Amino acid sequence: MAVKLITVHELSTQLNRSPQSIYNGISRNAKNKFPIRAIRVGRAVRFSQKEVDEFIQKGGCS
User: Each residue of 43-57: pLDDT tens digit?
Assistant: First the structure.
């Protein structure tokens, strides 16, 4: 089964956050790390839809 990967912009829409706040959270120097693991595909950043759904289900976004 293939894992569905979504972009930062798709994630920002689902979590109602700006793309820049997500990029800030996944940077190496981030003080407040983003709670969903980022997957790097070359220079592109992707997130697992399954992990995003679990995060939302746990009430992780406000």
Answer: 999 999 999 999 999
Strand partners, 41: 44
Helix axes 19-26, 8-15, angle to 10 degrees: 110
Q: Is residue 62 part of a domain?
A: no
CA distance 3 to 28: 25
Three-state SS sequence of 1-62: CCCCEEEHHHHHHHHCCCHHHHHHHHCCCCCCCCCCCCEEECCEEEEEHHHHHHHHHCCCCC
Domain extent for 36: 5-57
